[in-house]
Amino acid sequence: MTSFPKKDVLRFVSSDGSLTLDTSGRQNGRGAYLCRSVDCFDAAMKKRRLTYALGVTLTQEECAELREEFAKEISNAEVCE
């Protein structure tokens, strides 16, 4: 549990029982934040922190798709800086 500026985190949203990456930071639904690191994402999934915080369950396929989207968003942000 570390604090980061909002520009250094990505928001995940639980809406209708599914977990999505909120790139705009404004989607409706319950949200949780992770730092912009694939290691942080992997640790959160391994310890089930996102699923617990947002009250959703994910299949391995959904988790893999979400990880891919997360990694793509991180790489896009690095290119833009």
Number of helices: 3
Based on CA inertia axes, which overall geometry fits?
globular
Percent range for β-strand residues: 15-25%
* SSE string: EEEHHH
Structure description:
Helix 1 packs antiparallel against helix 3. Strand 1 and strand 2 form a beta hairpin. This protein has a 3-stranded antiparallel beta sheet with strand order 2-1-3. The protein has 81 residues and is an alpha+beta fold. The longest helix has 21 residues. 9% of the residues are buried. The chain is built from 3 helices and 3 strands.
Give the key terms.
81 residues; alpha+beta; Hypothetical Cytosolic Protein, Chain: A; 22% strand
State the gist of this model.
The chain is α+β, with helices and mostly antiparallel strands. The protein has helices at residues 38-46, 49-54, 60-80; strands at residues 9-15, 18-22, 30-35. The longest helix has 21 residues, at 60-80.
